[in-house]
Structure formats: C-alpha cells, structure tokens
Amino acid sequence: MSGVGVREFDQILRRVRFCDYLSVAQLYLRDNFLLERPLSPNDIKPRLLGHWGTCHGINVAYANTAMAFGNNPDFMFVLGVGHGFPALQANLWYDGALAKVNPRATLDYDGLAYICRNFSWPDGFPSHASPFTPGVITEGGELGYALANSYGVALGHPEKIIAVLIGDGELETATALDSLNLRNILDSGKNGKVLPILHLNGYKISAPSLYARKSERELNEMIRGFGYTPLWIYGDNPEDFQNALKKPVDSPFYILKTEKGATGPNRHQDAHQIPLKNPMTDEMELRELEKWLKSYKFDELFNQESGITK
C-alpha cells in the first residue's frame, strides 16, 4: 500500500467531486455540460433514467482504494451495485480505461460530452452496468455476485488484491450473504487478498435495508461470525478511509457508512433513483439542479482546453 499524505487526501477529494459531478451530468444533461450558461429546459434529457443514491459512496470507495492500491498492477476494484453505473462510468472515464475500448470516450471536452449525452440514451450507454463496459461480466441489475466473483479471481493468485464494494441491499441476497463463507475456504497464502466493503447507506429502492436496522453491535457480531474483523468508516473523509485500510488486521471487512444520496439536493437526500424528476418542465427543479451541479465547483477540476486538472 502506497504512502498517503495531505496531498493525496486532496487528490482523493478532488476525484470524488469530479466523479460526483460527472455522475449527475450523465443522469440529466444532453448539452451545456460545463454550465457555461444558465441551464435551460433544452439542456435536459427528455427521459431521466438511472440511479443516483449510491453514486457518492461508489466514488468514495473507488477513489480511496485506487489511491491506496492503484499503483499495484494486481489490484482490482469490483463493484457489486451495478445500478450505480453513472459513478462506475465516471471513474472508468477519469482513469482513461473507457477510452481504451471506445475511441470516442476521449479525455477532453468531446469525450465528456459524449459519455454524458449518451448515458441512458438510445444506441448509447445503458442505465446499469453491462458487459459492454470494460471489466463488467454481469448486468448491473443482477445483485449478489460480486463477492463470490472476487474470491474466484483470488483463487490461486496470491499476488491479487481485490477491493469489492457491496450494497447493503445487495447483502440481503442469498448469493451475497452465503459468499461470506468463502473466506473460510480461501483463507490461505495460496490465494489473493479480498477486501469486502459494505456500503451502508441505509436504504433500498423503497425501504430501509435490513442492515441499517441493526445496531452496530449486531452487525459487528454478524460479520465476526463469518470470520472477518469489522472496520467502520463514517462518511467520506479520506484520512479515515486510508487509516482503516492501513490497519493490520486479519480478514478485514470494511463498513462504509454514508447517507443515501449524499451530496445531492437536501430535500431529496434519500433518493434511490432520480432526485429531481421534472427539471425540464419545473423551473424550480431546474434551478435546484443547476445549484446542485455548481456545488461541485467543476470548473476547478476540468478545463475545456486542457481537460482534467489533477
């Protein structure tokens, strides 16, 4: 694991802001991607389809694990909550991985406009992760396989480090829950290291998750019962996340606790899918969307002439 200091913490925060903005822009915008003028109804996609609620947590986990392990060619990030595809695609674009398989996804304004305009759009990108995406092997609506797949990658490859982000609703599936037993089968020096991260944001599509209803003590005891050591990360402070990753414990199981829809519009904080549903026809929602996008100060992170400012 690489050394991480103040400069790296700032890079993590900037990346999370960047990918949060890009997640929102993919969900809503078909033009005016840098807010060079006030948003108008013509800038908004006529049909809004996708999931916002889990995006910030995905971006936090992706940025922190990439900073800690990204220099290791044997590191992998596995995403279980494939319905949070705007965040996954934002990170793949940011790292240049998307451009390697899609020449139109260039790391400049044209590439940014391309992925935003074509997200959840006819003949474009789907609203969920799909096998068209680099590294994706299951459709994003099929929850539960991520942990088992991660242990499969680790099998017989001691050099591998796999961070796997699991949604709290996803962990309610039989497949995900039973996959916790794989630690007992694969815990040896002959296999790679799997780092499960539970994204505990409290809600599924229409109700609190079962694990959000448990006390921390109950959840800790359940995780310990499967042979893991639970390590809690509260919120999106990169120093806390990096300190958790550095702790020398056997079989860590990280619990990332963030609010559902964090960094989104306050009155829609717990939104699972689209927080502002009618910005094309509702002037108040349009201005709220504009305020939301501007809150990320994207002009500090991306320049139309030079691209990403890291």
Structure write-up:
The structure is a single chain. The chain has 310 residues and is α/β, with parallel strands linked by helices. It has twelve helices and seven strands. The two termini are 21 Å apart. Helix 1 crosses helix 5 and helix 2 packs parallel to helix 3. Strand 4, helix 11 and strand 5 form a beta-alpha-beta unit. The longest helix is centred in the first third of the chain and has 23 residues.
Placed side by side, the strands forming the largest sheet appear as 1-2-3-5-4
The backbone outline, from C-alpha atoms, is: globular
CATH class: Alpha Beta
Count every helix, treating DSSP H or I runs of 4 or more residues as helices.
12
Cα gyration radius (Å): 19 Å
The SS-based structural class is: alpha/beta
Mind sketching the topology for me?
Layout: H1 6-28, H2 55-69, E1 75-79, H3 85-94, H4 97-101, H5 109-118, H6 146-154, E2 161-167, H7 174-179, H8 182-186, E3 193-200, H9 210-213, H10 216-225, E4 229-234, H11 238-246, E5 252-257, H12 283-294, E6 302-303, E7 307-308
Parallel strand pairs: 1-2, 2-3, 3-5, 4-5
Antiparallel strand pairs: 6-7
Summary?
The chain has one domain (6-308): 3-Layer(aba) Sandwich (Rossmann fold), CATH 3.40.50. It has twelve helices and seven strands.
List keywords for this structure.
single chain; 310 residues; alpha/beta; Rossmann fold; two-stranded antiparallel sheet; 7 strands; 38% helix
